[in-house]
Amino acid sequence: MNKLKLTFGILSLVIAFGLVFANLALPPESLWFDLGYGNMPWAPPIIFAIVGIVLVVISWEGNKKTGQEEKPTKVVNPAKASLNKRIETTFWGLYLIMLAGWWLVPKETAPKGIWSIAVGLLLLSLNAVRYFNSIKLSGFTSLLGMLSILGGIVELTGLADLNGAMLIIVLGVYLILKPWLDKQGFFGNAEED
């Protein structure tokens, strides 16, 4: 299974659902996507959905062709573990700075949902930095980042006021599913080579 294609496929599907939500909740003139034939706000969700489905299917097809493979033994790379620790520490610092900045900004200045979207982008950028440094991605922060962006979009549209409730529910579901996810090997530890 190609984990990168699976991750980007899931991300594309989350974006597609967020855009469908926005199309249903917002007035037609607030979303504009012009393909040369006038406003077509449904084109981006359809494109993201198709790309997401194709990436998810392709990631699973690669596993079927190779058949049963033995799982290699896990080798710990101290250099990657050290780099991952520095990256995580830096992103925790950025998160705390964002949190303090959010408390300083008056509520009426920034619309609801911006905080959730910013946290989601921060979590996804953490995994992007890991990827470009050849460190395995974290499934937990990837999932939380995608759901945080989706929750922010929902809050921006005014459909629901989530205020972190979705993230706590996802944390609980993740803790329940963690043994199964570890057994499947979707994501790894940063220390593994």
How large, in whole angstroms, is the Cα Rg? Answer: 19 Å
Structural class: mainly alpha
Q: Helical segment tally?
A: 6
Terminus-to-terminus distance: 17 Å
Q: Average the pLDDT over all residues and give the rounded result.
A: 76
Biggest sheet overview: none
Please tell me the total number of domains. Answer: 2
What is the helix/strand order?
HHHHHH
What is the number of beta strands?
A: 0
Low-confidence stretches: none
Strand content: under 5%
Give the overall shape, derived from the CA principal axes. globular
Estimated helix fraction:
55-70%
What does this structure look like?
- The chain is mainly α.
- It has 6 helices and no strands.
- It has helices at residues 3-25, 43-66, 78-104, 114-132, 139-157, 165-184.
- Helix 1 packs parallel to helix 5.
- It is globular.
- The two termini are 17 Å apart.
- The model has no long low-confidence stretch (mean pLDDT 76).
